[in-house]
Design a protein that fits this description.
heterodimer; A: about 500 residues; alpha/beta; Rossmann fold; 6-stranded mixed β-sheet; B: mainly alpha; ABC transporter involved in vitamin B12 uptake, BtuC; about 0% strand
């Protein structure tokens, strides 16, 4: 039904898709597996009309298929449920479902809300979602419910191909049940599904075939019945990395010394009564759904955001951290989630970025030696094995992984005691990810403390000494490092 | 694609110099050689001095991604203050002009940092307010400067002051953290803030220096012309910004900022003004050409990634 040939896509210097060839048959449920950065989402976006390929061809039912946007894709009966939030907050459930198709409920310029909501009710009931009323506003719904509304919306125009991009991780048992039912019904009706998920057990159970991607290339497509999780992992990650990825140890006890105390942090509608301690040599993971407040927590600890009440205290000196200068003066640094906007200056050179926080110490008696500056920047870049043409190269030409290395390098020169990192390996290819994990391990052993905020459960499980799960701004549960810790256990406290 | 962009980055700093050379050639021809006679070069230098001194200050502001549109009226007002004070006590004249410039520069900085008014708007408002003050101070007429200061109207004194200022500001920009902080703020203010750059201090400093240098220009101007009038400095702010951009400074500031752009740009503009006059071009067309050149320079330098021009 869908034939894809020679699709290539490059983002500045990162080759996201390399000569991708894919065929999907009618009535097939195809799983798409791969690490972050393997190209799955990029491929899905191209099929769904969100992005354009640099070259290559797509054919649907034998006819040329090149949607210029999602609406055109929808008209060709291709739909997608995206990874991020795909609903509009200030509209009602009903309005979201029929977004773009209000005309069928409009007469003489007036929108017949009642008719629209009735149709929405019928649809919602069809999928067992009577609890969600079409009049509800999206912001009143929990994340899972919002995703289910997106599902209903995608199914409305009766797609031949539905792409589900990493949706199941945000759903509870109930939501997943509905999702699986929908997938199976689509198959029965001769429709196709591309199912993208990190959950390998899920992908084996609910798909016919699985395509594995790595570094923008299709590695292989295998029959779901003939493989187990280990096989898929091997293909996804590659033999070399199988051993040293996350931390090896499982029973190290970090020092009892408390480095940083967080007491009763409150921020209206965002955080409620957050209290915990950070110990020396500890990697403290913080997880939860995207809007649980963990990102704001990171900003507050670094003094970026003003808290309504509560304290962030550096124990050794009993210093209160209230703003960025306090944080920096007390050895706390911050690696933000949004690399390109907040992490580094993309229009400046690698050198300018790396030395920026250290200028005070580089300047001696009112003079900065350009030679010294270069030397320091080069040594910082080399420490992290940064792949660049020259230290004067503009950062916008670097890959995501190397950009993150620049951000890390600029902070590591200052030898910080406490690192607050938010989504440290987001959008980074496997190899660099591995080196960042090694770096974190090295820092930990040196006695540095790391607060790692992450949306990747595997990462949290693999790297943290303790994991604090936030839910709706409050601490839901604290997990200790454990070999047998499973994603399902953690998710329960997140949703 | 990569090679093309790399090459253009190396060429970019040379373009203004090439432009300068071409300009000299064109005007030498159209003016039938009058451009390069000694007396005329003197005229050109006299105009360039003001553009460069004020331009160096404005360059600091622009490198941060800001704009200073108040220079024209500030020049006028500092000239008026210098003239008025000279008639009471000539020794007060220089400090008077300079302090006036400094005070209003600090005021601009405060409007932008503490009151968070975008610099574009804040400085245009100051342009209007200061013009009003100038008209008031000169009683809508003109105030002559005291004779005792006429000896300061010397080409060499201007040249020495120019060289000292060029040296000091360039040093500040190239060899101290101030230049790097400014470029960082212009490149990405958020990242700069996260990296510990004292944003507010740097902004106030830039505007203060711009004001200070404008005060210096105010004094030098009133010495040269002998009077301060209600219209002194009219449109000077536009000339200064034009000079800065013509010299290669990206209007959005950031990492491409070069501190010597006001120097080259000052000469380019001074020669442009002079060349058009001695060639005998109609005044209306002159304005058109100058405006067109400014537009072209901005369009070429504009960093399209940072769409927020008004900061």
């Amino acid at each position: 039904m869908l034939k894809i040939k020679n699709i290539n896509k490059t983002f500045i210097t990162t080759k996201a898709l390399d000569n991708v060839k894919l065929d999907i048959n009618r009535g097939e449920i195809r799983g798409l597996a791969g690490e972050n950065g393997s190209g799955k989402s990029t491929l899905a976006s191209i099929i769904a009309g969100i992005l354009f390929p640099d070259c290559g061809q797509m054919l649907k039912d034998g006819k040329k298929y090149s949607p210029k946007n999602m609406i055109e894709a929808n008209n060709s009966k291709v739909g997608i449920i995206v990874q991020e939030l795909g609903t509009i907050e200030d509209l009602s459930v009903g309005m979201n479902i029929f977004l773009g198709k209000e005309d069928s409920f409009t007469k003489f310029g007036f929108l017949n809300k009642k008719k629209l909501n009735n149709s929405a009710s019928i649809l919602l009931k069809k999928y067992g979602l009577e609890n969600i009323k079409p009049e509800f506003y999206i912001n009143e719904l929990r994340l899972e419910e919002r995703k289910l509304v997106e599902l209903v919306k995608a199914l409305y125009f009766d797609p031949d191909l539905l792409i589900i991009d990493e949706t199941s991780s945000t759903l509870s048992q109930f939501g997943r049940g509905i999702l699986y039912k929908v997938i199976q019904k689509l198959k029965k009706d001769g429709k196709s599904v591309i199912f993208i998920t990190h959950d390998l057990a899920e992908i084996i159970t609910y798909t016919d075939n699985i395509t594995i991607m790595k570094d923008g290339k299709i590695i292989d497509t295998i029959n779901s019945m003939k493989v187990d999780e280990g096989d898929i992992k091997k293909l996804m990650v590659g033999r070399k990395l199988k051993n040293k990825y996350y931390r090896e140890d499982f029973d190290t006890i970090f020092a009892k010394e408390i480095i940083l105390s967080i007491k009763n942090l409150n921020l209206k509608n965002v955080l409620k009564n957050i209290t915990f301690n950070l110990h020396r040599g500890e990697i403290l993971g913080i997880g939860g759904l995207t809007n649980c407040g963990m990102h704001d927590l990171g900003e507050i600890i670094f003094g970026l955001k003003k808290k309504a009440s509560g304290y962030v205290i550096l124990n050794k000196k009993n210093n209160y951290i209230n703003n960025i200068y306090d944080a920096l003066n007390n050895g706390i640094i911050y690696v933000p989630k949004d690399r390109d906007k907040e992490g580094l200056m993309t229009m400046s050179s690698i050198k300018d970025n790396i030395i920026l926080p250290s200028l005070n110490s580089i300047q001696k008696k009112g003079f900065i030696s350009p030679l010294l500056e270069r030397k320091i920047a080069l040594s910082g870049a080399r420490e992290l094995d940064l792949k660049m043409d020259s230290i004067d190269q503009l950062c916008m030409y670097l890959s995501g992984g190397n950009k993150q290395k620049v951000v890390l390098s600029k902070w590591l020169i200052k030898d910080p005691e406490i690192l607050v990192v938010d989504c440290p390996t987001r959008g980074i290819d496997v190899n660099v990810k591995s080196s960042i994990y090694s770096l974190m391990e090295k820092l930990r052993l040196q006695g540095k403390s790391i607060i790692m905020i992450s949306e990747e459960l595997q990462e949290l499980i693999g790297m943290s000494d303790r994991i604090i799960i936030l839910k709706n701004g409050e601490i839901s549960k604290i997990f200790n490092r454990n070999k047998n810790l499973a994603e399902e256990e953690i998710i329960q406290y997140m949703i | 694609m990569k090679v093309k962009i790399l090459r253009s980055k190396k060429i970019k700093p040379i373009i203004p110099v090439i432009g300068l050379i071409i300009e000299i050639i064109i005007f030498s021809i159209t003016s039938k050689g009058k451009l390069l006679i000694l007396g005329n070069i003197g005229f050109i230098l006299n105009q360039a001095v003001f553009l460069i001194i004020a331009g160096l200050g404005v360059a600091l502001v622009v490198s941060q991604g800001g704009l200073d549109f108040s220079q024209g009226s500030l020049l006028g007002f500092s000239s008026a203050v210098a003239a008025i004070l000279s008639n009471y006590n000539p020794y007060l004249s220089i400090p008077g002009a300079i302090i006036t410039g400094l005070v209003f520069g600090i005021f601009n900085g405060t409007l932008v940092t503490i009151f968070r008014i975008p610099s574009f708007i804040a400085t245009i408002c100051m342009l209007i307010i200061l013009r009003g003050l100038t008209i008031f101070a000169t009683n809508s007429g003109s105030i002559p400067i005291s004779f005792s200061l006429f000896w300061l109207d010397s080409f060499w004194i201007r040249l020495v002051i120019l060289i000292i200022i060029i040296f000091m500001i360039s040093y500040l920009f190239i060899f101290t953290k101030i230049g790097r902080y400014n470029k960082a703020i212009g490149s990405n203010e958020t990242v700069a803030r996260f990296s510990g750059v004292p944003i507010e201090k740097m902004k106030i400093l830039a505007f203060s220096i711009a004001g200070f240098l404008c005060g210096v220009c105010g004094f030098l101007n009133v010495i040269r012309t002998g009077v301060a009038s209600a219209s002194t400095g009219l449109l000077f702010e536009t000339e200064v910004l034009t000079a800065v951009v013509l010299g290669g400074m990206p209007i959005t500031g950031g990492s491409g900022s070069r501190i010597y752009s006001p120097i080259i740009g000052g000469f380019i503009l001074a020669i442009l003004n002079n060349g058009l006059i001695i060639t005998g071009v109609n005044i209306g067309i002159q304005q058109g050409i100058k405006g067109g050149v400014f537009l072209l320079a901005v369009a070429l330098s504009f960093n399209r990634e940072s769409i927020v021009l008004i900061k």
